[in-house]
């Protein structure tokens, strides 16, 4: 029998011993009076003299350390990422409860009742008077954090990652604060939250490859949405003038530290504004989200101090000139010249060439939060043209730490121009661009009923969380990122075999 099997067998045996003492190995409801974080917040500053047996508490948590000392013992319980020491003495809890304490393994979940005191070393602790068993662990906890250095194990067994490393829990608590802040700010400005289809007969709203699924009853292919945009704008047509959705999107693309095929976006639309209005709104939205999540508008990321209270703004052409490195720094005349653009890119038209140069030469250098605006029409099929220069559109993207975290524009609300844009995208698909938009006849029909001037924006929750938590990979801020299939685990077979013994 392997060591792993032997340890599992020992813990299964302890289940029977725990049952013999009158306890359920997988417990019952336990009403606690305080959480462990509550106790630490309220009593950590109290001296030994200020604590007394009248300060009674009932707490529950997972056993993270265990030290037996003859007729007494110490342990630490963990709850909500915080730990509190407990002291169990045979003379106080009685023989049956002390026998239960001796049967505990690290990782077991218990409830205790007692009073607060400080040990001789000054550690705040619970002097236990009763013990209740709540849940048995069959597998060993990692002894220290170095037992979970394998990043794939951390992502695949996120439950173990959260137990072993309180810092991981803090990332996801911060993520929740970011979403709560964005939602609160939008609702304070009169936006309403809506839900739109995740399975769509046509995909659109972004340039990306979709996942395809099939509806058996209707015998039709459907697409997991790559963006909710076209449905949200239908709601603007219908008179819901400020709408938002915190949505899951799916794009059949590669994996990287900045990309996951399933990701979360905030997308919102506001009637009677434009991209300039959204630039101002976005600056306020992001600064407040940073303050709500971290306590400051300044955050550390990869050795840089990013300041969300000062978001710079550049046109795409200005950004190329400002961040160009090396010889041959272009002038405004050059970045406005079709000949110069085509000579510095492999693209077939000046608009795509300008965007290509920006992506290659500028994006990764946008460390401080910045808004880049005035995009070429070829890369923006749903944006409104600039009246003074129809080759460009009223669009901006938000960058920080070298990543795009947001995209916004004045929405195209001319149905005839929208149809022409879709046709332009279809031509791009015929030339081999698999990510180009499909023709959405119903969306054109919706616009034909009249959509007011509107600004719309999407903000990537995952990347924003990366920046505000100092995380290097998008997988660090997604609880269960997509991974390659795991080989056989074999635990069920182990349990069946050990059951026979």
List keywords for this structure.
five-stranded mixed barrel, 501 residues, 17 helices, 19 strands, elongated, 26% strand, alpha+beta, nine-stranded mixed sheet, 35% helix
Q: What does this entry look like structurally?
A:
The protein has 501 residues and is an alpha+beta fold. The chain is built from 17 helices and 19 strands. Strands 6, 10, 11, 14, 15, 16, 17, 18 and 19 form a nine-stranded mixed β-sheet that branches. A five-stranded mixed barrel has the order 1-2-3-5-4. Strands 7-9-8 form a three-stranded antiparallel β-sheet, with no helix packed on it. α6 packs across α7 (166-188) and α10 crosses α13 (350-361).
The quaternary structure here is single chain
Query: For the CA atoms, what is the radius of gyration?
Result: 29 Å
Shape: elongated
Global mean pLDDT: 93
Q: Specify the biggest β-sheet.
A: 9 strands, mixed
Structural class: alpha+beta
Q: Strand portion, in percent?
A: 25-35%
Total helical segments:
17
């Amino acid at each position: 029998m392997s060591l792993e099997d032997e340890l599992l067998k020992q813990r299964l045996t302890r289940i029977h011993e725990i049952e013999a003492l009158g306890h359920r190995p997988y417990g019952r409801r336990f009403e606690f009076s305080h959480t462990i974080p509550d106790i630490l917040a309220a009593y950590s500053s109290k001296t030994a003299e200020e604590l007394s047996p009248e300060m009674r508490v009932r707490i529950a948590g997972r056993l993270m350390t265990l030290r037996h000392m003859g007729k007494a013992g110490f342990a630490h319980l963990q709850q909500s990422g915080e730990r509190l020491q407990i002291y169990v003495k045979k003379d106080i809890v009685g023989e049956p409860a002390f026998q239960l304490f001796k049967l505990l393994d690290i990782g077991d979940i218990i409830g205790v009742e007692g009073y607060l005191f400080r040990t001789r070393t000054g550690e705040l602790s619970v002097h236990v008077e009763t013990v209740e068993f709540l849940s048995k662990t069959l597998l060993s906890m990692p002894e220290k954090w170095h037992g979970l250095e394998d990043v794939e194990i951390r992502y695949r067994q996120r439950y173990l990652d959260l137990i072993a490393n309180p810092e991981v829990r803090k990332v996801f608590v911060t993520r929740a604060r970011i979403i709560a802040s964005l939602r609160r700010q939008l609702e304070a400005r009169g936006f309403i939250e809506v839900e739109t289809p995740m399975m769509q007969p046509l995909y659109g709203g972004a340039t990306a490859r979709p996942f395809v699924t099939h509806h058996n009853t209707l015998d039709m292919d459907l697409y997991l949405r790559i963006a909710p945009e076209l449905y949200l704008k239908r709601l603007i047509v219908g008179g819901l003038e400020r709408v938002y959705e915190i949505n899951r999107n799916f794009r059949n693309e590669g994996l990287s530290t900045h990309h996951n095929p399933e990701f979360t976006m905030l997308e919102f639309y506001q009637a009677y504004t434009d991209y300039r209005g959204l630039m101002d709104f976005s600056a306020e939205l992001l600064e407040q989200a940073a303050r709500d999540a971290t306590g400051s508008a300044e955050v550390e990321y990869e050795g840089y101090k990013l300041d969300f209270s000062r978001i710079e703004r550049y046109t795409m052409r200005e950004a190329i000139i400002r961040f160009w490195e090396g010889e041959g720094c272009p002038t405004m005349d050059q970045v406005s010249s079709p000949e110069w653009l085509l000579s510095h890119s492999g693209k077939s038209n000046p608009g795509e060439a300008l965007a290509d140069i920006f992506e290659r030469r500028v994006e990764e250098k946008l460390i401080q939060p910045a808004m880049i605006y005035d995009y070429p029409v070829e890369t923006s099929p749903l944006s409104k043209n600039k009246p003074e220069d129809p080759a460009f559109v009223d669009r901006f993207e938000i960058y920080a730490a070298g990543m795009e975290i947001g995209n916004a524009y004045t929405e195209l609300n001319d149905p005839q121009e929208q149809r022409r844009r879709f046709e332009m995208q279809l031509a791009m698909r015929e030339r081999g661009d698999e990510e180009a938009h499909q023709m959405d006849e119903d969306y054109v029909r919706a616009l034909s009923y009249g959509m007011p001037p509107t600004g719309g924006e999407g903000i990537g929750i995952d990347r924003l969380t990366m920046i505000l938590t100092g995380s290097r990979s998008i997988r660090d801020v997604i609880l269960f990122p997509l991974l390659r299939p795991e080989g056989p685990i074999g635990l069920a077979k182990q349990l069946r075999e050990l059951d026979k013994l």
